[in-house]
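Problem: given the chain below (229 residues), write out its structure.
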Amino acid sequence: QDSPRTESAGERARMEAEQESQFIPDVLAKVRRQNECSEQCKGKQVNFLIGNTGAGKSTTMNLICDRRIEHQQVRIEGSEGSEYFEERLVVENPLQGCEIGHEGDSQTEFLQMHEYDGCIFCDTPGFDDTSGIVLDVANAIAIGSAMRSCESVRFILVIQESIMLDRGGHLADLLQILKRFLRDVEGSVQSIMALFTKSSTLSTPVKIITQLEKLGRSEQFKPLLPILN
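Solution.
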C-alpha cells in the first residue's frame, strides 16, 4: 500500500500532466478571441500601449481619448463590517474594455482598439499578468499577429517608475519583451516612446534620465542599449 506521501506526489504529477495537456488548447482558445483586433488593425497605422500589469495603460488610454479623470475619495468595505475611504482615480464614462483596476489585478483581458482624433490606439493586456501564463502567451501571440497586419506600428511604453528599482530587473524584462516584437531594433527606435507613470512627488525628468543612464551601464542592459537610449 502506497504511503500518503507517495499518493500525494502521484496526485501532484497527475494534476501537472493534466495542466500541461490543456495548456495549448487554452492558449489557442484565447488567441481566437483576439482575432477581431487583428482584423481591425489590418492596413492601418496603430499605436500599441505596452507595459506590465498595473503600469497605467488603461488610464493612459482614457487620457489620450480625452476621458475625464479625477481623484475621488471612494468608500471601501473592510473586514468585519468596517469601512474606510481611499483616494482613487475615477474615469467618467471610461472607454469600453479600458476600465481602471485598483486591486493590482489586470482589468484588460484582450486587445482593445480605440480611435481618437484620427489616430488609432491599441491597449494591450499587461505582461507579467495576474491571470497566469496562459494569458501571457496568448497575448504575446495576439499582439504579434495584430502588429503584422498593420501598415505601420508605434510603441508607447507605459513604465511605472518603481520598476526601475531592484537594479532595473523588471524594466529589463519589459524591454526584452518589446525587443521580441522588433525585427530591426536600431531601426525601430524612432517608433518607441516611453511614458513614465506613478512617479513620486520628489521625482523629476532629470532624476529619471539619470537612473536610466545608470542602468544602461549594467551588464543586463547592454543588449538593450539601442532601446534604452
